[in-house]
C-alpha cells in the first residue's frame, strides 16, 4: 500500500498551485470571477445561437461552444478531471455523432412542418413547463438552502480530485453508476436490434465471397470486355473487337451515345441480330458476315 | 519538489519563452518532417528525393510553404462561408495546445530561474492530449461539410467515425500506464519510469497505442479521410493557399504530438536510455533530457514514415473492424489482467515466485484446453459443383479454341465511306472521337 500512498501524495502535491493552500470556504478568487464573466456569456450565447440558428449544423456548432465553455468553467472551479471529461465525452464524442447524423441528412433538408403526432405541441408545452419548473425549483433550493463548501478540502485530501471522484463513483454511488451503464447498454442493444438487417434475407447484400462464387458458377467468370480505348482511339465509346474482328457487344455502353457507335450501327445490328452470346471461354465472337470474307 | 510546484512560480517572461519555444519547435519539426519523409520514402523507393533547394534539398519544404502562402485563396460557391473559414483554424489550434503538457526535458535553470522544461503540468495531463485531439477532429469534419461537395463530405464522415473509434482504443491503452504510475500527470508518468520503461512492462498497451495513434492522425495506412485514390483529396479537396497549409501544419503537428506522448508514456520521456546515466552523470542533466526526448520522438516519427512507405491503404470496413473487434477487446482484457496482477501484488498474499508459478500453470492449462477444442467442421454442400481445379480457375475441358480468322482486318465492308477512324485506321482518330 505504500506505493499507493506515495501516489496519493503525488496527486495532492500536483494540484494547481494557483489555489491558496487553505482558502476560506466559499470564496471566489479574482481569476475565477474573470473567467466566469467571460465564459458565462459565451455559453449563454452558444445556447441562444443553438436555438435561433437556421442551419442544423450551425446549431450543433453553437452547442459545442456552450459545452466547451462549461468544460472550462469546471476546470476553473477546481474540477479539472470533470472539465476534460466534459470536453472529451460531450464535445468529442456525443456532439461528433450529432454532426455525423446531420451531415448524412444533408445540408439543404428542412424540417417537415406537417405534424405527424397528434397533440404533440400540447404535450411538449406541458412537459417543457414542467421541466422548467423542476430546474428553477432545484436551482432555488441550491441557492438558498445548500451551503457551498468548495472543493478545496476534498481536492487536497485522500489522493486529490481524480482519486476522490473514482472512490466516490465506485463505493458510494456504485449502484447508480451500474444502473446508468445498464441503461446505456440497453439503449445500445435496442438500437442494434432495430437497425440490424439480416444479410441472408431476401434481396439483401451478398458477401464478397458469395459474389465471387456466383460469378464463377455463371457463364462469365471474367470481367466484361473493356472498351477499345488505346487500341484505335482514346474514347470510351470505342468498341472492343473480338479476335475475329467483330465488335464485342458487351463493350458498348448503352449510356454513352457517341459518333463511333453510330458509325458502327451496321456492325452493331449485325451482332445483335445474331444474338451474340458472350462465351468468354470459347473466345469466339459472332460469325463474320459472309460478304466480308 | 514536484514538477507542478516547480512550474508554479515561473515568472511571466519564462512562460512566454516556453510558449514561443514550443511553437517554434513544432513548426520547425513540421518543416523538417516533410523533408525527412520525402527523403526517407525516396530512399525506400531507390530514388534521390528532393535535393535541389538549399543544402541537400533540406529547404524544399520551406520553399513549398512560401509558395503555398502566395497561392490564390479559393472559396467554392456552395461553401458555407464561416464554417469553411473556421475549420482549418479549429484543426490547427488544438494540435499546438496539446503539446503544452508534454515534458520535453528535466529540471533546468534558465537565466537563474529553476524550472522544468514543460509549459504546464496538470494532474490530468494525459486527458488534455485526448481532449485536444477530439476537438481537432472538428476541423476535419467541418471542413468536409462546409466545402459543399461530395468528396470532402465523404472524407469528413470517414474521419469522424475513424477518430471516435480509435480514440477509445487510445484511451484504453493509456489506462494501463495510469494504473502503474498512479497519476495522469505527464511528468509523474515520466518519473515513474525511472527504473523500467512502460514499453517493457505494458507491451500490449504500447502496441495498441502505436496502432491507434496512426489511426488518430489519419496517416497511411489509415489515411482514409484523404484517400487520394478514392476521394481526390478527401476533406481538404476544396482548400487552397494558407487554409490548406493550416491543415498540412495541423497534420504534422499532430504527428509530433502523438509521437511525443508515446515517448512520454512508454519510452520514459526525457529519461536517459539504456542506463547511459551510469556511464557519465552529465547524461542525466535536464538539457540532455531534451536530446533524449527528441531522439525518442524522432524514432516514432520515423515509424510513421516507414509505415507510409511500406503498407497499402486499408479498406474502410477492415479498418473499423480492426479498431472495434481487435484493438478494443484486447485492451479491455489486458486492463483486467493488469488490474488483477496489481491487486494480487498489493495484497501481499503471494510472493513474486508463487505468482509466476500460478501464471505459468494457468497458461499451461489454457494451452491444453485449446488443444482439446474440436476443429470446426467444414460444411459439405451436396450440390456443389467443382468450379476450379486445385484452387485456381482452369479452362473447361470442353474448351472450343476458335479457328484462326482468315483475315485479321476488321469488319469494315458495310461502313459508310466517310473517314472513320476507329476500326479502319490505327492512328488518325486521336482525340476527335
UniProtKB/TrEMBL annotation, chain A:
It catalyses: a quinone + NADH + 5 H(+)(in) = a quinol + NAD(+) + 4 H(+)(out). GO terms for cellular component: plasma membrane. Its main location: membrane. The chain crosses the membrane at residues 34-53, 60-77, 83-102, 122-143, 173-196. Pfam families: Oxidored_q3. It is found in: Cell membrane. Keywords: Cell membrane, Membrane, NAD, Quinone, Transmembrane, Transmembrane helix. Its EC number is 7.1.1.-. It is a multi-pass membrane protein. InterPro entries: NADH_UbQ/plastoQ_OxRdtase_su6, Nuo/plastoQ_OxRdtase_6_NuoJ. Residues 269-293 are annotated as: Disordered. GO terms for molecular function: NADH dehydrogenase (ubiquinone) activity; quinone binding. Belongs to the complex I subunit 6 family. NDH-1 shuttles electrons from NADH, via FMN and iron-sulfur (Fe-S) centers, to quinones in the respiratory chain. Couples the redox reaction to proton translocation (for every two electrons transferred, four hydrogen ions are translocated across the cytoplasmic membrane), and thus conserves the redox energy in a proton gradient. This is NADH-quinone oxidoreductase subunit J.
From TrEMBL, chain B:
It holds the Pfam family NADHdh. The keyword Cytoplasm does not apply. GO terms for cellular component: plasma membrane. GO terms for biological process: aerobic respiration. PROSITE patterns: COMPLEX1_ND1_2 (PS00668). One of its GO terms (molecular function) is oxidoreductase activity, acting on NAD(P)H, quinone or similar compound as acceptor. NDH-1 is composed of 14 different subunits. Subunits NuoA, H, J, K, L, M, N constitute the membrane sector of the complex. It comes from the Bacteria. The chain crosses the membrane at residues 12-34, 82-102, 122-142, 163-184, 196-215, 244-267, 287-307, 319-343, 355-373. It is found in: Cell membrane; Membrane. This is NADH-quinone oxidoreductase subunit H. Belongs to the complex I subunit 1 family. Keywords: Cell membrane, Membrane, NAD, Quinone, Translocase, Transmembrane, Transmembrane helix, Ubiquinone. NDH-1 shuttles electrons from NADH, via FMN and iron-sulfur (Fe-S) centers, to quinones in the respiratory chain. The immediate electron acceptor for the enzyme in this species is believed to be ubiquinone. Couples the redox reaction to proton translocation (for every two electrons transferred, four hydrogen ions are translocated across the cytoplasmic membrane), and thus conserves the redox energy in a proton gradient. This subunit may bind ubiquinone. The gene is nuoH. It is a multi-pass membrane protein. It catalyses: a quinone + NADH + 5 H(+)(in) = a quinol + NAD(+) + 4 H(+)(out). Its EC number is 7.1.1.-.
Amino acid at each position: 500500500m505504500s506505493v499507493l500512498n506515495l501516489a496519493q501524495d503525488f496527486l495532492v502535491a500536483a494540484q494547481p498551485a494557483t489555489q491558496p493552500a487553505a482558502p476560506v470556504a466559499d470564496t471566489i478568487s479574482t481569476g475565477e470571477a474573470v473567467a466566469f464573466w467571460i465564459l458565462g456569456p459565451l455559453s449563454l450565447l452558444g445556447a441562444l445561437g443553438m436555438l435561433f440558428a437556421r442551419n442544423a449544423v450551425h446549431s450543433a456548432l453553437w452547442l459545442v461552444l456552450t459545452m466547451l465553455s462549461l468544460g472550462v468553467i469546471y476546470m476553473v472551479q477546481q474540477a479539472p478531471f470533470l472539465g476534460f471529461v466534459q470536453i472529451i465525452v460531450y464535445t468529442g464524442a456525443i456532439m461528433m455523432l450529432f454532426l455525423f447524423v446531420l451531415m448524412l441528412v444533408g445540408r439543404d433538408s428542412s424540417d417537415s412542418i406537417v405534424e405527424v403526432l397528434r397533440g404533440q405541441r400540447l404535450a411538449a408545452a406541458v412537459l417543457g413547463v414542467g421541466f422548467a419548473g423542476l430546474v428553477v425549483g432545484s436551482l432555488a433550493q441550491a441557492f438558498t438552502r445548500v451551503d457551498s463548501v468548495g472543493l478545496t478540502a476534498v481536492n487536497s485530501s485522500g489522493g486529490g480530485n481524480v482519486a476522490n471522484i473514482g472512490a466516490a463513483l465506485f463505493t458510494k454511488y456504485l449502484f447508480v453508476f451500474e444502473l446508468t451503464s445498464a441503461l446505456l447498454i440497453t439503449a445500445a442493444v435496442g438500437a442494434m436490434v432495430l437497425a440490424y438487417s439480416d444479410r441472408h434475407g431476401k434481396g439483401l447484400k451478398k458477401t464478397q465471397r458469395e459474389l465471387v462464387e456466383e460469378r464463377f458458377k455463371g457463364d462469365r467468370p471474367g470481367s466484361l470486355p473493356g472498351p477499345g480505348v488505346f487500341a484505335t482511339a482514346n474514347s470510351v465509346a470505342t468498341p472492343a473487337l473480338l479476335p475475329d474482328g467483330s465488335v464485342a457487344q458487351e463493350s458498348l455502353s448503352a449510356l454513352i451515345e457517341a459518333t463511333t457507335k453510330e458509325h458502327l450501327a451496321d456492325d452493331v445490328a449485325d451482332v445483335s441480330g445474331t444474338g451474340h452470346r458472350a462465351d468468354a471461354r470459347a473466345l469466339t465472337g459472332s460469325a463474320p458476315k459472309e460478304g466480308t470474307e | 519538489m514536484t514538477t507542478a510546484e516547480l512550474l508554479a512560480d515561473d515568472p511571466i517572461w519564462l512562460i512566454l519563452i516556453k510558449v514561443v519555444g514550443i511553437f517554434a519547435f513544432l513548426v520547425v519539426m513540421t518543416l523538417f518532417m516533410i523533408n525527412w519523409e520525402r527523403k526517407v520514402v525516396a530512399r525506400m523507393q531507390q530514388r534521390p528525393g528532393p535535393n535541389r533547394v538549399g543544402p541537400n534539398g533540406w529547404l524544399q519544404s520551406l520553399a513549398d510553404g512560401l509558395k503555398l502562402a502566395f497561392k490564390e485563396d479559393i472559396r467554392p460557391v456552395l461553401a458555407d462561408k464561416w464554417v469553411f473559414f473556421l475549420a482549418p483554424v479549429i484543426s490547427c489550434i488544438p494540435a499546438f495546445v496539446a503539446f503544452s503538457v508534454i515534458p520535453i526535458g528535466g529540471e533546468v535553470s534558465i537565466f537563474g530561474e529553476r524550472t522544468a522544461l514543460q509549459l504546464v503540468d496538470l494532474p490530468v495531463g494525459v486527458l488534455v492530449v485526448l481532449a485536444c485531439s477530439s476537438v481537432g477532429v472538428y476541423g476535419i469534419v467541418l471542413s468536409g461539410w462546409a466545402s459543399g461537395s461530395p468528396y470532402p463530405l465523404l472524407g469528413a464522415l470517414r474521419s469522424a467515425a475513424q477518430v471516435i473509434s480509435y480514440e477509445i482504443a487510445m484511451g484504453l491503452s493509456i489506462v494501463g500506464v495510469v494504473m502503474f504510475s498512479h497519476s495522469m500527470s505527464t511528468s509523474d508518468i515520466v518519473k515513474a519510469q525511472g527504473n523500467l520503461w512502460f514499453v517493457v512492462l505494458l507491451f500490449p498497451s504500447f502496441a495498441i497505442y502505436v496502432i491507434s495513434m496512426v489511426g488518430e492522425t489519419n496517416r497511411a495506412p489509415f489515411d482514409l479521410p484523404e484517400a487520394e485514390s478514392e476521394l481526390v483529396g478527401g476533406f481538404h479537396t476544396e482548400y487552397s493557399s494558407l487554409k490548406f497549409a493550416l491543415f498540412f501544419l495541423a497534420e504534422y503537428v499532430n504527428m509530433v504530438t502523438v509521437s511525443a506522448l508515446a515517448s512520454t508514456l512508454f519510452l520514459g520521456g526525457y529519461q536517459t536510455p539504456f542506463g547511459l546515466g551510469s556511464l557519465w552523470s552529465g547524461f542525466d542533466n535536464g538539457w540532455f533530457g531534451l536530446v533524449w526526448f527528441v531522439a525518442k520522438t524522432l524514432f516514432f516519427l520515423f515509424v510513421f514514415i516507414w509505415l507510409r512507405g511500406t503498407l497499402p491503404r486499408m479498406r474502410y470496413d477492415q479498418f473499423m473492424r480492426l479498431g472495434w473487434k481487435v484493438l478494443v477487446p484486447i485492451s479491455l482484457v489486458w486492463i483486467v489482467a493488469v488490474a488483477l496482477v496489481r491487486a494480487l501484488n498489493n495484497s501481499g498474499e503471494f510472493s513474486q515466485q508463487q505468482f509466476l508459478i500460478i501464471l505459468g500453470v494457468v497458461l499451461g492449462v489454457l494451452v491444453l484446453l485449446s488443444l482439446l477444442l474440436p476443429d470446426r467442421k467444414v460444411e459439405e454442400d451436396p450440390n456443389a459443383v467443382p468450379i476450379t481445379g486445385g484452387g485456381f480457375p482452369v479452362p473447361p475441358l470442353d474448351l472450343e479454341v476458335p479457328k484462326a480468322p482468315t483475315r485479321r482486318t476488321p469488319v469494315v465492308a458495310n461502313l459508310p465511306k466517310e473517314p472513320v477512324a476507329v476500326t479502319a485506321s490505327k492512328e488518325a482518330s486521336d482525340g476527335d472521337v
